Amino acid sequence: MLLSVITLLPLAFALVMLVLPEKVIRPVALLLAVVEFAVSLLLLTSFDKASPAIQLVEQIPWVPEMGISYFLGIDGLSLWLVILTTFLTPIVVLGSWTAIDNRIKGFHAALFVLQTSMIGSFLAMDAVLFYVFFELSLVPMYFMVGIWGGQRRIYATVKFFIYTMAGSLMMLLAIIYLMFACRDTFGQMSASLLDFYRLKIPFVAGEFLNPQTLLFFAFSLAFAIKVPMFPVHTWLPDAHVEAPTPGSVILAGVMLKMGSYGFLRFVLPMFAEASQYYAWLFLFLGVVGIIYGALVAMVQPDIKKLIAYSSVSHMGYVMIGLFSLNMYGVSGSLYQMLNHGISTGALFLLIGMIYERTHNREIAKYGGLAKALPIYTIIFIIVTMSSIAVPMTNGFIGEFMILLGTFEASRPFAIAAVTGVVLGAVYMLWMVKRVFFGPAGELVRDEHHPLHDLNARELTVMAPLVVLIFWMGLNPNFFLDYSKASLDHFVKNRDNYRLAVSPAQPKLENVAVRGEAQ
Amino acid sequence: MPINPEAWKVGLDHYLYLSSLLFIFGMLGVLMRRNVIVILMCIELMLNAVNISFIAFSRYAESTNGQVMVFFVMTIAAAEAAVGLALAVTVFKKFKEVNIRFFEHLKG
Amino acid sequence: MNPTELITLREFITVVPLCVLFFVSLIPLLIKPFLGGREPNPISVLVWNFLAILAAAGCTGALFGHSYQKTFAFSNAIVLDGTSVWMSYLVYIVTAVGIMLAYDHVATRGRQFTEFCFLMVSSACGMLVLIMSNDLIVTFIGIETMSLCLYILVAMSREQVLSKEAAFKYFVLGSFASAIFLYGIALVYGTVGSTYLPDVATQGVKLISTNRVFLVGAILLITGFAFKVSIFPFHTWTPDVYQGASTPVTAFMSTAVKAASFVAFLRFFTSEAFVAAPHLLTVMTWLAVLTMTVGNVAAILQNNFKRMLAYSSVAHSGYALVGLITAGFGTNYNAAATSLLFYLFSYSLMTLGTFALVAVFERSENTSLEINDLRGVGRKYPWLAMSMTVLMLSLAGIPPTLGFFGKFFVFSSAIEQDMYWLAFWGMINSVVSVYYYLRPIVVMYMSEGEAETLQIGLMTRGTVIVTGLLIVILGILSSPFFRMVQNSVMNQF
Amino acid sequence: MLSSADFLFYFLGLVSLVFGLGVVLFRNPIYSALCLVITMISVAGIFGTLDAWFIAGVQLIVYAGAVTVLFVMVLMLFDLKHEMKTFSKGVIGNGVKLAASGVLLGMLGTYIWATYATEPTFKPLPAAATSSIKATKDLATSLFTTYIFSFEVIGILLLVIAVGAVTLSRITGGTHHAD
Amino acid sequence: MMSNQILFAILLLAPFVGFMFNGIRWKSHNATLAGVVATFAVFVSFVCSLLLVSQLFGANAVPSVGTRFFEWMNVGGLQVQAGFVIDHISAIMVLVVTGVGTLIHMFSIGYMSHDERPSKYFAYLNFFLFNMLLLILGENLLLMFVGWEGVGLCSYLLIGFWFTDSEKAAAGMKAFITNRIGDAGFLLGIFTLFFLFGTVNFSEIIARLPAGGIEMGWTGPMTVACLFLFVGATGKSAQIPLYVWLPDAMAGPTPVSALIHAATMVTAGVYMIVRLNPLFLMAPNALHVVAVVGAATAFFAATIGLTQWDIKKILAYSTVSQLGYMFLACGVGAFGAGLFHVMTHAFFKALMFLGSGSVIHAMHEEQDVRKMGGLRKYLPITHATFFIGWLAIIGIPPFAGFFSKDEILWQTASSPLGHKALWVVGVLTAGITSFYMTRLMCLTFWGKSRVPKETHPHEAPPVMWIPLAVLAVLSTVGGWIGIPKVMLGGEDNWLERWFHHVIAPVPEALGHAVHSHALEWAAMGVSLSFAVIMACLAYTFYVSNPSLPGRLAQKFHGTYRLIYNKYFVDEFYFARIINPLIDASKGLWAYVDVNFIDRTTYVLGDVVRGVGSTAKSFQTGNLQQYAMYIAVGLAVTMFLILR
User: Fold this and answer.
1) Does residue B5 belong to any structural domain of this protein?
2) How far apart are CA E603 and CA E40, in angstroms?
3) What is the dihedral angle through the alpha carbons of C405, C411, C417, C420, rounded to the nearest 10 degrees?
4) CA angle at C421 for the pair C415 and C424, rounded to the nearest 5°
5) How far from the centroid of its chain's Cα atoms is residue C372's Cα?
6) Does residue E72 lie within any of the structural domains?
7) Which residues contact E135 (CB under 8 A, 6 or more apart)?
8) Is residue D108 in some structural domain?
9) Is residue E554 located within the same domain as residue E612?
10) What's the whole-number mean pLDDT along residues E604-616?
11) CATH of the domain at B75
């Protein structure tokens, strides 16, 4: 029940939003989002971290003719992503308190629908169900960017929608193919991931036209666009720049992870040989993404676009981590997904806060902000440090493990990727220098509109993020422990991946069994 | 044309040739005439051509089914003509125009 | 059969719904003379016609709803099976909605509403014949009954220029296609010796390889069907007629006509004979691909909402044709036919809703609704806009709407039959289609501008919202629906 | 040897073709209508050569009589004063039309020839199995037994068309004027 | 053990608490309170480290004291403990860092008393110390890296402390980014070592070194690892080619320069190499690189120091040069000597920086030595202490610098890893150092006063001069623990005994050291006399005959310009690396993103639109055209099917 509750509760909230009067929307939305977060924290107590099995499983036949079921389950790979989603939503609600000033009803409804779809795609253990949630998430985000976005919002939102959809449709074909492959192998159609894992899909090395390779690329395309990887990333800067702050936060914070999570959940275990064989390609594209994203970020005149390109770079790390196919890299990637969600989310929130004050994001017009807004600056620099992976912040743990894993998988790529460490510092610090340091810039000087520092609400928004930045940096074990069993299982048995299903209430039995074993 | 004089002996194929020729004539008329009334006539011509095939087939298969069908076809053709002419009259009353080139507002 | 016994009761039962529908709908027409030729109260007309439809639907439900036993009647001229029952329901729904829209719509209400309704119901009768027909000549008669009524319906708009032009184009091209279709029947009849569809199927297996004339006849027939369901390159009438006709008629035409024609096409096409035809599959595949592509790419450039929807409907014919091809050439008829029927259902529902929405925004009979006219609707009419969004997303195939599952099932059956090429193109086309389906949404919600105040007919508005809801609900609960269709199809072959 | 029946066929066929072409080619629609009448009559004759006397009669009455008269009437009603362009223009368009028709004709002819001309069973006309009276009776029987459903539907169709045609003639317009 | 854990906790957390204290009240202007708290925090650390180090002495001495707090990271085979250790190597560092740190903190109380944000300053300084302790005490490479980056961060913040000045902010950024380049190398080194030995723990790495498995080539894993690590060291310790940040780093407050950019942080690279000395000894080629880079840096930085006019810049180049010495020492296998020099250098360079701080303070933020001169009479204490520092750095016995520098030079000459050329460079550098340091003394304290009239230099308050005095004492006596063997009559000095267990001797396989007392005396004499000569020369130049330098500069115009402009290295980096990179990035953005990828998608869209408009143009509205499509479609379909 818990998973369904977590997934569907926001949908109910969305309906609540539609019927409430405008005045009370914001507080109620905040309250509900916090409630959802609290409910999702129950996962931590009911989740058995020693087991790699998918847990808290719920399975109800949905379209039994096609073997499609409403199949939710959680394991170490998805646990934190779900919590990240529920964690960011209240922050976004609070963060958009003043930024979103029209149609707040629709906005919060869209936000909650988005939450459902994101959580759903992290929890779905059925490929079609996953696809449904995966696609559904486009719609509210489409509205968010399109209605509450900036000048070129329509261009950006349509680009976002079509890019993402174009990728995912090929995945749909691949899913359907696999469902029939299940029928041919097991005598019964199935869209369950557990069955997909059991399939033996023929693979011929060095040849493109064989089932596994084609399926691999069909899935990869969908997820690579979502991530986004290097050549298909151009929707991201546009979408980010035009999106309203909460949209950017959710987009960067969670939606991009749906792509990398897809690689983790689908591509790598299902197409083990192909992903091994073509790992170099993804390592290459990931490294190109790291360097390219960093370089292009460096020369952006717009702060938000800079952060958007930095996402390309950061997600490049996630990709190389995943395709290093070892424990370090994959754990690092998982960790980096969370980091990126927190630090980039925080950066977007911060940019939104300053944008609300000046209505301008051009770096050249800033300068000397540190004098005018000291607290803001401190928080910004802390987040920047997390973003450029300074030790003791979360970013370091992720990047270190990713690079460690990549180094094991391929030294040349690791060495190339390490340049990203330098370039990351370059573009972030250069931006920080131009925006915060030096003499006061055009916007900061403005006598008529003296800038005021962060207020209590904004501090409340940022505080949990800052706390997490350090907590995750200082005690990664707390977070990794929940995922360790799953990741270990994933890495060790990827060639022959199976996921066990543990019953809905596994705690007592498992504890007992382990007790005996000891 | 084959030299073989047998080929000139009338058989099913000759009826079908006739039918197809008439059909194509009708089709050409629909394709090329501009007067809507004439186009309607050409459609009638096409239906007639088909009727020849029906009757010929039915005659050679020694069954009356084909004739029943022709019967139906004729009725429907008449109905079609009625509707078509009624439409034509309605349109003509309004616009005093029967050239099909007049009907090109809807396009693109 | 005993010649003395003209019609057995059992046979008569099969056409009871048809008779009920037709004769009850005649009543208002008969009342009219008694009122001295004045138009009766439109509400009463509406009620009578609803009564007709409800009665017919009730008969269908009561007599055949419980079992999908295949029943032949009238010397096997018609067949009553699950497919017919399901499609009858669809026809009833569409007709009822069409009448409702017509009641509300400026271009159709007025002096001739009685006749309008009568013709619409008669057209529906033609569709019922078409759906049940098991004999090519019956198919032809059904098509003609349906079409002749439609020609008149298209012309019956208060709008003066475009509707007449549309009617004329439709009529001329429709008759032309009928002639071709009829020639096809003649050739098939000549080669097979019968127009009875099972005969065609059994004889065809032999004839297909030996007798080219049979194949020519089949191709002519396919052309005739293709015209009716607007398959490229026989689709050219579609945009013009859909645009020119009054919106209630367009709604009726784009859904019921297409669905009924597709069913007849399916009955003809699912014969083992065609599997053996050498290049038929290739050509049909290409036709499907081209239909989707042409429909979608042309729709992108349209500004007139109805015309855009017309092109989208062409594209949807292409998707449906995928289902038809898999049903015809595939090994798993049941799945493919089910997916086709499901698709037709979902498509009809979405299209009905969309055209109802168009009807909402047409304030006079001469309004030609541009997409940009929807500005500001998102703010002013949130529920309508939301329904519209759902409808558009469903047409684009975004989950979890009905449209997604329609496409999903169709492409599943294509993949099941290893027709990857079709599925691939279908997907590419879906991407293209997203672009123009998003446009109304963009305009409604994101463009600056204020919507005009509308006087919206309650029923039309209701239609929009109900279809919007249904699309989501049936989308999520697609399984029971799918299963019902599947069970009905199971017994067919 | 060609029999007299053959010659009759050729004669009627030629007449129907020539006048059929006339329908298409005459600039004046009245001439076209007259050609259509003659074509219909000769087609009725061809039905006669195929022993379908009843149908031939119906053809004469319905087509040559009713339908064509209707056409002529309408033409008279229109009373076209001004000269109109008879044929569609455009070398390419017309060329394509002719080519398409030619290809169709060619294929129809070829396949008919390949199927039926080479097959001797279709050559001689089989002797009429029954008298024409009997045949007409058979026709009636099958019309009211086997094809009863179609027959009834046709009846309905005619009724509907009657209503429809009347309706069409009384359509009232809106506010819009022809532009 | 428990008490050790608490001691370690206090040792580490005291500066952190100070940081938190000052960080929270960062707006406060109360420099005294902030400074006292910060200084006390560091002093507590110093006391704790003394207590811990004391356990290494005496009868029941332990080889090392360590503790583990918690497991920091545990992924796959990577298990990283938050564990800290004090052994004979880190003991010296920790004492130097906390000791000198205390003094510099104390000095800062006076120096920063008029600053706008003293609390922030002390917070950063404490935070730096915390990170430095992590770096020194961490039991594994990863913890060291944490500190390594942490000190970089603090250095960034402190260099840019007066951030409203764009150039100072830029200097901070430059320092961080340059360090990052090194850090990237360091990371790669960690990776290599981890996959080589399966651990990142220092003691475990050393324990797992293959016995006698010396790698002779260039591509062996240990060589590669050492080279990677050395890249890290060049960044942090400002060696060629990454030294460019250090002179710019003088933009920060002067005590910061003393603490971070002279005494502690910049020596981290040396410390790291010393910590891993058995590993480096396995990779002689890497050591050669270290030695050559060290010697080259020492020489080049010293030459640049000759021409600078900014008092802090001169000291900065001197620091770079001295760091070069330390690497030279490591490179020739004289790790002990390297660390020895770290210590003595910390004393005298901190002394000199603080002295210069005192001068700058007195001169009201004036740093140009051309505007000083004759300050001896205004600042007697500062002059006295600076004088001792000067003696130490130019290597006059018995001041600290003499012993360490002499040890390095002798080892360079005698070690099997050394080379005569390196020794020559070392001696030359010593001479140049002597010259420019004397120049600095002359220009600042001696000779005629060039102080502008409106400036009234005054001696620093006690809170500032007491640290100077303490450091002066240390600079005097600090070297006595490492008196050369020859002077002790062949007996191992204290330092050598101290390092006995932790610093490996150069393996036999690499050859034998030269043991010749005569030679050692001779070498010592040569370098000493050369330094003295150069000092006298400088005195002549800048006090006796002040016009001479100008004339000389005129004569060797080209060379002078080259050296004065620091060999145009910064310009080279900008012109050849940074600007091209920015241009390339703009190009990538404009051409790849906007013009290629987006354009491609637009082209796809245009194709679709093109096809669409073609399809549209077929829809002419002409009915017969439509009929034609039907006919043509039929004909084509039929033809295709029946062909």
Assistant:
1) no
2) 68
3) -160
4) 80
5) 28
6) no
7) E143, E144, E146, E147, E148, E150, E151, E268, E271
8) yes
9) no
10) 88
11) 1.10.287.3510
Residue D4: which CATH number? 1.20.120.1200
Specify the number of domains making up chain E. 3
Domain boundaries, chain C: 279-493
Scored b (16 or more CB within 10 A) or e, C478-490 reads bbebbeebbebbe
pLDDT tens figures, B63-103? 888 888 898 999 999 999 999 988 888 888 777 777 777 77
Q: Do C415 and A66 touch (CB under 8 A)?
A: no
Alpha-carbon distance E260 to E172, whole Å? 13
Do D134 and D164 have their domain in common? yes
Do both E464 and E557 map to the same domain? yes
Distance set, CA A128 to CA A68, A192, A316, E278, E609 (Å) = 7, 8, 27, 58, 32
Decide if E365 contacts E301 (C-beta within 8 A).
no
Bridge-based pairing of strands A68-74 and C71-73 is unpaired
Distance, in Å, from the CA atom of A285 to the CA atom of A288, rounded to the nearest integer, reads: 5
**Position A202 pLDDT exceeds 60:** yes
Regarding whether E414 and E545 lie in a shared domain, the answer is yes
Phi and psi for E138 in degrees, rounded to 5? -55, 135
In a domain, B104, yes or no: no
Structural contact between residues A323 and A66, judged by C-beta atoms closer than 8 angstroms: no
Q: Which pTM was predicted?
A: 0.91
A394, pLDDT greater than 70: yes
Test C236 with E629 for CB contact under 8 angstroms: yes
- E588 close contact with A: CB closer than 8 A: yes
* Secondary structure class of C450 (helix, strand, coil): coil
Domain carrying residue D9 = 1-81
Provide the domain limits for residue E424.
Answer: 140-564
Q: Which of A80, A77, A178, A84 is nearest to A131 (CA)?
A: A178
**What residue has token string 């102080």?**
E451
Three-state SS at B57: helix
User: E184-243 pLDDT, tens per residue?
Assistant: 999 999 999 999 888 888 888 888 888 777 888 888 888 999 999 999 999 998 888 888
**Closest Cβ–Cβ partner in E188, E194, E585 for A298:** E585
How large is the angle between the packed helices E88-111 and E268-275, nearest 10 degrees?
A: 170
Distance from CA of E628 to the nearest CA of D (A): 6
* Residue of chain E whose alpha carbon sits nearest to that of A413: E188
From B105, which residue of chain E is nearest by alpha-carbon distance?
Answer: E621
Residue E130 CA to chain centroid, in angstroms? 17
E305 plus E395 within the same structural domain: yes
Vertex A196 angle, CA A190 and A199, to 5°: 110
Residue B105 lies in a domain: no
Q: Pick from B20, B25, B50, B104 the residue to mutate for testing the C interface (most C CBs within 10 Å).
A: B50
The helix (H) or strand (E) run that includes residue E26 is: none
Whether E322 and E200 share a structural domain: yes
Contact A476, A396 (CB under 8 A): no
Q: Write down the domain spans for chain A.
A: 279-498
Check the CA dihedral D41-D44-D49-D53 and report its sign. Answer: negative
Give E108-153 as a DSSP string.
HHHHTTT-S-HHHHHHHHHHHHHHHHHHHHBSBHHHHHHHHHHHHH
> Using the 8-state DSSP alphabet, how is residue A151 labeled?
T
Claim to verify: residue D117 and residue D143 sit in the same structural domain: no
| CA pair distance E365, E346, nearest whole angstrom | 24
The count of structural domains within chain D is 3
Answer whether D94 touches E (CB < 8 Å).
no
> Domain total for chain B?
1
- Answer whether residue B6 is part of any domain: no
Whether residue E340 contacts residue E431, with contact meaning beta carbons closer than 8 Å, is answered with no
* Residue D179 domain-assigned (yes or no): no
D98 falls within a domain: yes
Q: Do E112 and E162 lie in a common domain?
A: no
